[in-house]
Specification:
- It is built from 11 helices and 9 strands.
- Strands 1, 2, 3, 4, 5, 6, 7, 8 and 9 form a 9-stranded mixed beta sheet that branches.
- By secondary structure, the protein is of the alpha/beta class.
Length: 325
């Protein structure tokens, strides 16, 4: 009798497990059951925001629900990250971070962990950093800049902010070219640009998307970009790699993540909707005009990328500390 009871329990447990397993695909099939929110860690008009809005328009048609863009700027992206990490893991709340969140993590400024607190969903594009010099500076190439810096050690300044990509790009160039330029810390890009145009700083690292208006208006001279290849929107601007500095090959990847624990079938459905949007010719054209090149891939691709980049930037940050120098 006791054996029979155990057998029935085993049968019931097995049946329940089967029902639970079947419930996940059913939830994915019914997903989304309400509007999807994409939380942007910066304000309207930023690249993350532009990408989110473009994707959202196409995803609405694919998924049959509206897509809301929620700008939660502040605390270097931590406000947005915390909101999504603590959201219900049902795929209805997404996060669209980029390089700044990776740097937050490796510098110890993040309140969440990209690998531990989120489920990777999809890439959304990539961009590059550009380097500008003032028009009045007698520099037209990276080689010219390096030569001038060697002639005037400690006299050339570059704009940066503590823990940001421009700080590390400046220090990486110093190391690779064996020069000594000095970082001047800024709190905002507009303030740095004002000083660049006045020749109070001589080097300005900024994403291609924010540098393009300056380049188009010929307010300052863009002399290099950080890509492995040239930016699609700037075919005439060479890369640092072409100038002999392959260590300064840096891209800004934009990607989407959900809360950890989001069922994989739902993650996969989101990935397919995002990837479809990225293949939309109108979206590709709009993003390309903003300096955002195509970068596509699913959860496994994004997970591998984050693991690699967090390790890579962790090493860069260690090399950039005073003790390492």
């Amino acid at each position: 009798m006791k054996v029979a009871k155990l057998s029935r329990r085993a049968v019931v447990a097995s049946a329940m497990a089967g029902l639970a397993g079947a419930a996940i695909p059913a939830r994915a099939q019914d997903f989304p059951s309400k509007p999807i929110t994409i939380v942007v860690p910066f304000g309207p008009g930023t690249t993350n925001d532009v990408i989110a809005r473009q994707l959202g328009q196409d995803m609405m048609g694919t998924l049959g629900q509206s897509v809301i863009i929620d700008n939660r700027a502040g605390a270097t992206g931590n406000i947005a990250a915390d909101l999504v990490a603590k959201s219900k893991p049902d795929g209805h709340t997404l996060f669209i971070p980029s390089m700044s969140q990776i740097l937050n993590q490796v510098t110890g400024n993040a309140t969440t962990d990209l690998l531990r607190d989120f489920a990777p969903v999809a890439f959304a594009g990539k961009g590059l950093y550009s380097m500008f010099v003032p028009n009045e500076l007698a520099v037209k190439s990276v080689a010219d800049l390096v030569e001038l810096a060697r002639q005037q050690p400690g006299k050339l300044n570059f704009a940066g902010y503590i823990g940001g990509v421009p700080q590390f790009l400046g220090e990486m160039l110093n190391r690779a070219a064996k020069i000594n330029t000095v970082m001047v810390p800024y709190k905002s890009t507009p303030d740095a640009l004002v000083d660049l145009l006045a020749n109070r700083i001589q080097i300005w690292f900024t994403p291609v998307t924010s540098g393009m208006p300056v380049h188009s208006a010929k307010q300052a001279r863009m002399i290099a970009v950080t890509g492995d290849t040239r930016a699609g929107v700037l075919p005439d601007v060479p890369t640092f790699k072409e100038a002999g500095y392959p260590d300064l090959t840096v891209e800004i990847a934009y990607f989407l993540m959900a809360a950890k624990g989001t069922p994989q079938p739902i993650v996969d459905k989101l990935y397919r909707a995002i990837d479809k949007a990225l293949q939309n010719p109108k979206i590709k054209e709009t993003l390309a005009a903003q300096g955002v090149d195509e970068k596509r891939g699913g959860p496994a691709d994004l997970s591998a990328y984050l693991t690699k980049e967090i390790g890579r930037w962790g090493d860069i940050v260690k090399l950039s500390t005073p003790a390492a120098k």
